[in-house]
Amino acid sequence: MSRIFEIGSRLERPASATGSVRAGDLRPLRVVSVSSNKGGVGKTSIATNLAVYLRALREDLPILMLGFDEQPMIDRMFAIAAGVRGETTVDALRRGSLDGAIALGQYGVHFVPSSPDMFELKHEIRDPFYLRGVLAATDWTGLVIIDTKSDFEILTRNALAASDLAIVVVKDHASLIEAQRVFDLLEDWRMPPTRARILLSLVDRRVKFREGQERDILALLVSEIRELGLPVFDTFLARSPKVEALTTNPQGRALSILHGAAGSLVDKQMCHLAHDVLDALALAGLASRAAPTSRPTILLEALTPRAALALPSQPLRLEHFPVRIGRLDPDVANDVSIPDHRPWHVSKRHAELIERDGRVGVIDLGSRLGTLVDGHALGGGSDRGPRFFEEDGGRLVLGNARSPFAFAVKIVGSPRRGPSAL
Predict the structure, then answer these.
(1) Does residue 315 have a cis bond before it (omega within 30 degrees)?
(2) Which of 215, 259, 366, 394 could form a disulfide with 389 if both were Cys (CB 3.0 to 4.6 A apart)?
């Protein structure tokens, strides 16, 4: 316990009224916490599955999973061999560093084994900024995801204080009221409210209302969140009996949504969430390998009449990444919006152009008909990618081979590399 007090006494508090990062906080890692003061909102499932999806999207980015709950969900999801345990989260926190306790787990995600004695730390840790000191003393480069307890006590506050992004999970009125406390706490710490963002979870849109403009529970909650002025993710997670069943099987393991419910609505929603988290954290500078000094530019040219009508200019110049492409829809924000009509060829969130180490590639975002990259099929129930173009570009088709939305992708300023599929 003395080690805990020693680290806590050395740690500085945030001093900026705007929440800007001080020199001592320039860490080679980012921290995401998943929080809810109310149980039964799917918090742990979101945290563990987010780790899997982020690892799948960014294979160059190390992911470390921590759990501040006594439940062994993290071990059931990530432990490669049952019953093999080293140091636990409690051991590492008491020692003041996670080094030596981190294990490589399933799906390429690292984790620290959970402990049934987490509750003991509530009586030992007094400083809400203690965890920041532990992470600073840990030799880890990449992303840390923390599954908090379903409370608002000291361990949860430590996770929030250490986070670059806190995902606050809400499924109903009661959890929304509790979520407000997170934003109040950030204000007390003089941190900007954008350090946290609400995620609507376990939403059942079959719940309808007879009166008012908000005719279902999703619209009602979104309306109330906006009225409170709180940040919220564009995507939400639907209730799914199939997903809930992934934690119960004869093997006693917890299966990931990506592998156990591929192609489901929640699978697509988790993919969208993972992209949004990456965007919010701006992780381009983390764990990059031989990144080029300048990023390539894309020139998107139409190859068909309907594709030409979809572009605001010919060619369309794109100089930022990722570039989200989808069907024109007032409820969806895409970088390139494609006017389409029935029978649909383009999904609302169809595909994404990404850049990795100077290469330009395509990820299908769970579209119905898929995407063709130089004739290679992505999505539509098959491999989502990424699939990378050759150095000068290639051909992109939104939909199947009969789709009228075909484009030439020309890449300018990219280092010379060959084609690759991961």
Answers:
(1) yes
(2) 394
The dihedral built from the CA positions of residue 108, 138, 278 and 147, taken in this order, carries a sign that is positive
Integer angstrom CA distances of residue 196 from 22, 166, 185, 204: 19, 4, 11, 24
Domains and CATH numbers, the chain: 2-285 (3.40.50.300), 297-421 (2.60.200.20)
pTM score, whole prediction: 0.65
Give mean pLDDT, residues 357-362: 85
pLDDT given for residue 287 in this prediction: 46
Quick check: helix, strand or coil at residue 185? Answer: helix
Distances from the Cα of 421 to the Cαs of 25, 288, 377, in angstroms? 36, 18, 12
Q: Which two tokens stand for residue 275?
A: 């992209």
Containing 297, the helix (H) or strand (E) segment is: strand 297-302
Please state, in angstroms and rounded to a whole number, the distance separating the CA atoms of residues 79 and 102.
11
Residue 66's closest CA among 82, 44, 86? 44
Q: Is the peptide bond before 386 cis (omega within 30 degrees of 0)?
A: yes
Residue 280 corresponds to which tokens in the numbers above? 């919010």
Distance, in Å, from the CA atom of 53 to the CA atom of 73, rounded to the nearest integer, reads 17
SS3 82: coil
Picking from 134, 203, 123, the residue whose alpha carbon sits closest to that of residue 162 is 134
Read off the pLDDT of residues 219-254 as tens digits, 9 standing for 90 and up.
Answer: 888 889 999 999 999 889 998 888 888 888 777 788
